[in-house]
Amino acid sequence: MMKRISMKYALLTFIFITFFRLFIYPNLNQKQKEIFIDEFVNRSSQDTIISPDGIQSQITLAVVLSLANDLSHIAEFHLLYESWRFIQNFSPLSDGVLIDLIVFCEQPSCSRLPSSCLPLSTQTHLDRTSKCFYEELKVEIVDEWRNYLYMTSIAFMLTEEYRRSIKFYQWILRVDQDALLSPALYFGLKQQHSIPLYKMQFGGIPHGIEFTDQRLKEIAHKLGYKHAGVHNLCSTWLVSPNDSIQLANLTTKIGKHFLLNEFGRHVQGLEDIPNEGEWPKWWFGVISLYAADIAINHFYFYQLTSQHGTEALDHAADSTSSIWSAWQIHCLHNPQPFSKFEHRDHLNAFLNKTSEEQTEMAKNIEQTQLILTKTIDEYHQFDQRKRQFTGTVTVRDYVTALAWQKAYSATGAISY
Asked: Which of the pair, 244 or 407, is modelled with greater confidence?
């Protein structure tokens, strides 16, 4: 019975599409054709939640980012890399899930990557073990965004190298270099977490006020984009490969408008605000977030709700919540521990110590190996059937332990 209904539905769909293409579509003007493609083709699926039956046996995800030629950014990436390596210790949770790391690096930062990161040209998709790849970020991209280099963290997704590399993945997790991965990401991807998995998900962290939200909607309307009224979507995207390209295209296009037209005292409504803006009201440094706000709201207009912004992504590194409540972590500009700036100061002080003093500090494993081992132990104690993911290891503990373990390992490698 169900088979006959499916065949009938397929036949009716075929007849409708054929009729539309032959008699209606040719008579549309160019603008109407663009609207049709935007509304019907790009958003043909209205189901925002992926059903368990829709998950394939092999889950594949690429964590993608750009890396600037900045020593602090390179150091932050090494922490992301450490977390990527660490979460691979969670078998059988990690079984059936492949998470690759793909870095588009501005030279000479490519030469400072871990030795296990291979050129993207070696990617074959035949080896089902997680790997790290890198591709040199084109000089043209850096030059194009010279006045706002943060946008290179999105513009790299418009390159042919990116398009070729991601077509075999089911998911793209676009992050900044100061991010970390949590083992809870596996639970999320397998739909075994209390936080549901959607077809698109974004970090949900407030970074504006009512003035910001209202102005973004007004700019969207002025530019001819729709806006669903969902704000505070942060820099991490968990989306399909094709969607990542579409969003990057829209975001960079809108970002150029912001750079040219939406800052300065000459702009209506900003007469009392400095040229660089005023945080958190209207700030030049987060143009990429403003542009992405409009792009995401327009692209997912008929699907997007506030639930697509989640604390499971861009979870603050200073959080005292359980590490199992976060899928991905972001080292934000917060003064509380773990603060990446405070840690940088502590790390510089550590590097200025003698080898003997460094060795003595490294002996104190309370904040490193014990915490990391405890994280693994907590996983094995969970009652996964009840999806009760609670433990005593906090996000702050986890990030701090990984950060110092990275420092101890690096200094140990050069001390002789």
From this structure: 244
Q: Which of 204-208, 389-393, 406-410 shows the highest mean pLDDT? A: 204-208
Angle between helices 241-261 and 287-299 (to 10 degrees): 130
For residues 413 and 409, what is the distance between their CA atoms, to the nearest angstrom? 6
**376-397 per-residue burial string, b: 16 or more CB within 10 A, e: under 16:** eebbeebeeeeeebebebbbbb
User: Could you give the dihedral angle defined by the CA atoms of residues 21, 23, 24 and 27, in that order, rounded to the nearest 10 degrees?
Assistant: 110
Q: Tell me whether residue 66 is exposed, middle or buried, using C-beta atoms within 10 angstroms of its C-beta: 0 to 12, 13 to 18, 19 or more.
A: buried
Round to whole Å and give the CA distance between 117 and 42: 34
Q: Could you read off the pLDDT of 197-210 as tens digits, one per residue?
A: 999 999 998 889 99
DSSP string, 282-295: EEGGGHHHHHHHHH
Q: Tokens representing 389?
A: 């993911």
State how far the Cα of 102 lies from the Cα of 122, in Å rounded to an integer.
12
Q: Which uninterrupted H or E stretch holds 220? A: helix 210-223
User: Using CA atoms, how far apart are residues 277 and 232, in angstroms rounded to an integer?
Assistant: 18
- Are the C-beta atoms of residues 178 and 249 closer than 8 Å to each other? no
**What is the mean predicted confidence (pLDDT) over 360-380?**
81
